[in-house]
């Protein structure tokens, strides 16, 4: 289980609850250790939101599957159905995780015009988050 808070600079601070190691996730650098002391980290972690390993994996599985079908589909109605299904999932997904994926773009994965470019970014970000989960 992770504790997370969204920062203004589109970074998501994460820490392992078991050993209080602080990790910081940014789209540019991925998951990396913070240089701040534990005391500074605790001051930064006011309005905490949970991001679990399961929520990352669940979101990855759904988006990866939908992206692979969307990518190879030649039927516009099927692509529209996938966009609708992803939009429905986004409405109920972990808000902190969505913020980390969207990097502040409130229409991320929700706009028909940018959906085809948003999906691979989301899948790639989730892959990085899973790979760097235990640096």
Beta-strand content estimate? 5-15%
Percent range of helical residues: 40-55%
- Radius of gyration equals 16 Å
- Gross morphology is globular
The count of helical stretches stands at 5
Q: What's the β-strand tally?
A: 5
Topology pattern, helix = H, strand = E: EEEEHEHHHH
- Tally of structural domains: 2
User: What class do helices, strands and sheet pairing give?
Assistant: alpha+beta
Uncertain spans, ≥5 residues at pLDDT below 50? 1-13, 15-22, 34-47
The largest β sheet comes out as: 5 strands, antiparallel
Q: What separation lies between the terminal Cα atoms?
A: 15 Å
**Residue-averaged pLDDT:** 75
**Strand order in the largest sheet:** 4-3-2-1-5
Distinctive features:
single chain; 135 residues; alpha+beta; 5-stranded antiparallel sheet; 15% strand; disordered N terminus
